[in-house]
Amino acid sequence: xxxxxxxxxxxxxxxxxxxxxxxxxxxxxxxxxxxxxxxxxxxxxxxxxxxxxxxxxxxxxxxxxxxxxxxxxxxxxxxxxxxxxxxxxxxxxxxxxxxxxxxxxxxxxxxxxxxxxxxxxxxxxxxxxxxxxxxxxxxxxxxxxxxxxxxxxxxxxxxxxxxxxxxxxxxxxxxxxxxxxxxxxxxxxxxxxxxxxxxxxxxxxxxxxxxxxxxxxxxxxxxxxxxxxxxxxxxxxxxxxxxxxxxxxxxxxxxxxxxxxxxxxxxxxxxxxxxxxxxxxxxxxxxxxxxxxxxxxxxxxxxxxxxxxxxxxxxxxxxxxxxxxxxxxxxxxxxxxxxxxxxxxxxxxxxxxxxxxxxxxxxxxxxxxxxxxxxxxxxxxxxxxxxxxxxxxxxxxxxxxxxxxxxxxxxxxxxxxxxxxxxxxxxxxxxxxxxxxxxxxxxxxxxxxxxxxxxxxxxxxxxxxxxxxxxxxxxxxxxxxxxxxxxxxxxx
Length: 492
Hints:
Blueprint: H1 11-67, H2 70-86, E1 89-95, H3 119-131, E2 135-141, E3 146-156, E4 162-171, H4 173-223, H5 238-293, H6 300-330, E5 340-343, H7 344-361, E6 365-370, E7 376-379, H8 381-397, E8 404-411, E9 415-421, H9 453-463, E10 467-473, E11 477-484
Parallel strand pairs: 6-8
Antiparallel strand pairs: 1-4, 2-3, 3-4, 5-7, 8-9, 9-11, 10-11
C-alpha cells in the first residue's frame, strides 16, 4: 500500500462499508417488517377467534333466552366461563341500554352500567351494533389496567331487535409473549445474518478490490520502468478486460523501450560512423595543408597534386553531407513527397543517359525493355530518378568490363522493375546488411562510396508505397527488383 494512504481511504474499506451497510439495512428492514407482520397476524387471528366465539355465544344466549331454559343456560354459561377463563378471556353478557325488550337480568352476568365501560369496550359494542356483525379491537383498558383484545356480538329478541350484548375481553399478555418470543428469534436471526453478511461483505469487497489493487501495483511497477510485470488477472468481467489492457500496455511499453534502445544504439552508431567517415578526409586535408604551410612541399607539381587530393576529399564530404540530408528527409515520418503522374520509361531514359559515360568507360552495354511505352505511377520524378540512379550506378560499378546490365519493366496487377548486372555479386552472409547505414563493400571499385546510397534508395521506394527485393549470387551478379502501383496514363 502506498505510504500515507490510510486504511479507511482504501477501496477495500469503502466497499466493505458499502456492502456492510446495504446488507445490514436489508436485514434490519426485513426483520422489522417480519415482526410487524407477525404481530399483526397474531393479534388479528386472536381478534377473529374472539369475534367468532362472541357470535357463537350470542346466538346461544339468544336461543336460551327465547326458550327460557334457565337451568340449561346456567350450565352453558358456567362451562363457557370455565373454558374462556383458562384462556384468560372474560365473558360479559349485558342488556342493551336503549332496547325496549332488554335482555332479562337472569341471562346477564355483569351489572355494570354502559357509562362505566371503558372507551374500548364502548367502541367495540357500538361497532357490533352498527354493522350487525361481530367486530374486535385492541387497546389499553382502564378497567383491567392491561392490554386487551375485545370482541362483541349483539343478542336479539323475538322480534329481531337488539336486546343485549356479549362482550369478550381477552388479556393480550399471552399474545404479547408470543410476539416477544418472535422478536427474540428474529433478533438472534438478524445477528447471525449480520455476521454472515459481514463475512460476505469481506469476500465481495476482496473480490472487487483485489484486482484493482493488483492493477494499481502493476501501474506503479510500469511507472518505474519494469515493463515485464503483469497483472495476472484472468476473468471475463470488465475488471478482467482492464487487467488484459494493462498487460497489453506493458507489452507495448516493453516493445517501445526495445525500439528506443535500438534507436539510441542506432543514433550512437550513426554519429560514430559519421565521425569516422569525416575524420579520414579531414585528416587527409589537414596533412596536405600542413605540408604546404610548413614548407615541406614546395614543388609546384606536388602542390597541385595536393590541391587536387584536397578537392577530391572535399567533394566526398559534400556528397556524404548531401546523402545524410536526403536520408534524414526520407526517414522523417512527417516528410511527405509531392507526387504527380510520372513516366517510369522516361525516368529510365534519363538515368541511362546519365550512366552512359561510366558504362562506356567499362565497355558495359545497357539493355532496356518495357511492356508498355508509358508505365505511369504517382511519384516525385527527381527522387525516383535518384533511387534508380543509385542502383544503376552500383550495377555498373560492380559489373565486369564488357558485360551487360539489363533493365526490364513488366506489368501485371502492379509494375515490376528489374535492374540486373552480371558482375561480382553479393555474398549471402552480407546480403541482409546492404541497406544499413554506412554499409560499404570492401572492394576497391567501391572506395568512393558513402555507404548511404542503398539505404536512401530503399527509403525513397518506401515513401512511394513500394519496396526493393535483392537477389544475388556471388560471382554471377545481382538483381534489384522494385514493385509499385500503376496508374492510367494522364490525358493530354
